[in-house]
Amino acid sequence: MEANDRNVVKFTALAHALFHTYELSIPLFIGVWMADFDASAALVGTVVGAGYALVGLGAPVSGVLSDRFGSRRLISLSMVGMGAGFALVSLADGVVVLGAAMLVWGAFASLYHPAGLSLISRSAEERGTVFAYHGAGGNVGTAAGPLVTALLLLSVDWQLAVGLLAVPAFVAALLGSRVEFDAVGGDDTASVSLGAELRRTAAESRALFGAAFTVAFVAILLYGTYYRGLLTFLPDVLAESPSLVPVALFGREIDPAQYVYTGLLTVGIAGQYVGGRLTDRVPSTTTFVAAFATLAGLAVAFPVVRTVGVVPLVAVCLALGFVVYGTAPVYQVVIAEHAAADAHGRSYGFTYLAMFGVGAAGASVAGIVLTHATSAVLFGVLGVVAATGCGFVLRLRRL
User: Fold this and answer.
1) What is the phi-psi region of residue 254: left when phi exceeds 0, alpha when psi lies from -120 to 50, beta otherwise?
2) Which string of b and e fits 23-41 if b means at least 16 CB within 10 Å?
3) Rounded to whole angstroms, what are the CA distances from 115 to 62, 177, 230, 280?
4) Could you say which residues form the signal peptide (predicted)?
5) Residues 6 or more apart from 171 whose CB is under 8 A from it?
6) Which helix (DSSP H) or strand (DSSP E) does residue 97 occupy?
7) What number of other Cβ atoms are within 10 A of residue 180's Cβ?
8) Is the CA virtual torsion 294, 298, 299, 304 positive or negative?
9) pLDDT score of 185
10) What's the confidence (pLDDT) of residue 101?
11) Rounded to the nearest 5°, which phi and psi values hold at 248?
């Protein structure tokens, strides 16, 4: 890669790692919150899902702002704000305060993806490769965040663990400010009246939603539902497996489910890289179809292998981590191919409205299913979601 591409990778991968550090540490606290606040899976899933939803609901705003003013300032603000939001989570003494703090975190987290992805799509020469490294960087946070969280929960209470996790955000923002690169995009229009700006944005957004982009939007919405429905309660689902019984070690109880969950996320690093590189060699929609079909099959297989033994269970978990994260750079390239270059910020804004906003319903759905049914039913629902997504991508290929 050229020097500019390398520095774009450094800056965006740092922020991406931070986002996923927080996003995927949260599921490890869910069981603690359910016990500490005497709340059901349905209630905690809905509260957490609201914070996750705001990540998507705020994404179109971030997309518009990144088209107008550039991405760098938004990304820096997102890093600092996520740290502040997590610090507020550490002060929660009940479900209501937890929900409010999660909304603060979600509002700042919503700024990252549209700004970061539009920066890459408009400023990188080797776009697919930069997307791959960006995704792999995000998965460093995806793996490290839950691992650090699991280790912290062995030695300190959850409030202190959350507070300590807030610190890296401020360090990352400082490091990011020292990375230099040439960014394309952002035409400061602050002098334009609010009414004119809203009318312009509405018109451009309507133009964006042609047939192909709309179908891609729905496919990503379904992927987001699968993603959130799978990961939000996965540590608790794994903990119920007869193959993953807690063990005593050095006077402490170790829950192997937390480490299988972390391993699943770690394998996602390789999945992100492979998915991004494949889009430089294979049509992105072909790869997207294959990913959805594989996710459907793994969802069907999970309840079966969960009762067979630890080796098959871990194998399916690792495959899930590889494919669910390998899909991310694939749909990012799909969006880049189906949106005009000057609308990439808005296109990624709406993409993450689908992925994290509407897709966040997966957390609530998972909590409700687990409250009133079983994990086998949950994985059956996820299999149907993935199969439906496969159908939408097949439709996209014909447009």
Assistant:
1) beta
2) bbbbbbbbbebbebbebeb
3) 6, 16, 26, 22
4) none
5) none
6) helix 95-109
7) 10
8) positive
9) 55
10) 94
11) -90, 130
CA dihedral 33, 38, 41, 45 (to 10 degrees): -50
pLDDT at residue number 4: 80
- Convert the pLDDT of each residue in 1-33 to its tens digit: 678 888 888 889 899 999 989 988 998 899 899
pLDDT higher than 50, residue 189: no
CB 272 within 8 A of CB 132: yes
CATH classification (class only), 208-398: mainly alpha
**Residues across the chain:** 399
| Structure-block tokens of residue 248 | 């005593």
Q: Which CATH superfamily is domain 1-191 in?
A: MFS general substrate transporter like domains (1.20.1250.20)
Sign of CA dihedral 330, 341, 15, 198: negative
Q: Is 249 helix (H, G, I), strand (E, B) or coil?
A: strand
235 contacts: CB under 8 Å, gap ≥ 6: 27, 28, 30, 31, 257, 258, 261
Residues 31/135, Cβ–Cβ less than 8 Å: no
